[in-house]
Amino acid sequence: xNDEDAPDAEDNEDLGQEPEPEPRQGSGASVDLSGLITxxxxxxxxxxxxxxxxxxxxxxxxxxxxxxxxxxxxMGPAIQTAIGARRQYQAATAPILALQTDLGDxxxxxEHISDAVRNVSLTRRLLDQLAATAALFLPANLIxxxxxxxxxxxxxxxxxxxxxxxxxxxxxxxxxxPLGTPPERSALLAGRRADVLDDIDASxxxxxxxxxxxxxxxxxxxxxxxxxxxxEGAQALAGNVLETAMKRHGNAWIRNSFPQAAYPLRGHxxxxxxxxxxxxxxxxxxxxxxxxxxxxxxxxxxxxxxxTQDTFNRHNGVHHASPDSYRPEFTLPAVLLAHALLRALDxxxxxxxxxxxxx
Length: 359
Known about the structure:
single chain, mainly alpha, 16 helices, elongated
């Protein structure tokens, strides 16, 4: 047995054993202690064995704790950065997530949406929410309008067959709102014709997607043609841009923007009409779709199959060319519609070299 394993008095005390008594001198008798020594030694050895293994366990625990602390020290800054980034993301996306909230709880929304372009006022609560969070979803020229104004913009877009998204400037839009009839509004736009064309031209500078640049060039030619006083040529160019944009990207953009709607009809008119009319599937329309809906509101008439119409109709211009289908008052609506669709497509098409879209 090694010395370190041999029991001594201290070991016996630790194990609760009393020191063995010394034999009395002069007794002349020997005392047999083997029966006591053997259990004492066994107990001491077992205690030492147990203590050594406990120490090994404690050492492993200390090593594990040291490793845990080292990992925590190394990962702590990264974890804190991740937590901070997550909090920033949550703060930034909270308004957007709120805008994506299901609108099924807004009374009457699903019942009124299909008639929005037919002079039925949208739910006040919805439009108040739109106005309050305008910077996230409204074109810049419409920011600051209240719920009544936004409702009127939707109504006159359908009535006049135009789009007021991104152009013209805000004061022209506000001047249109109190006017009660399409002829009155058409007269106002004609009186501000140069300003309207300037606003559209400036807005088109934002459109930078490579697949849209050719159409931007032709629409700018339409603007120049309108400035020169050739309204028929300007209307024809704008109508062709609108047709090309719809054929290349517009139908897919509508379906992606309004996945709730059913699309049983083919063609541009069928796709636009389905998006605007499928009331049964509008219960989950989000506020972020308002901008897209605003662009579409005036496009129904542009692709309508009727042979006569009081608003700009691209179909009539191509298939029923006449002085009736090419009128001076149709020029600005045609250019405005083509411009709004290009702006909407530019925002939603993927830009690999651009991180953020313009509003």
